Amino acid sequence: MLDEQEKEIIRSDEFRKWFNGSVCVDEDGVTPMLVFYGGTRGETLNYWFSDSNIVAKYFGATARGKFRKNRFHKGFLRMFNPLVVDWGYDAWSFHYDDSENIVDTETMAVSAREDGYDGLIMRNIYEGEDENYLCDDYVVFDKR
Question: Which of 15, 51, 71, 144 could form a cystine bridge with 60, CB 3.0-4.6 A?
Answer without folding.
Answer: 71
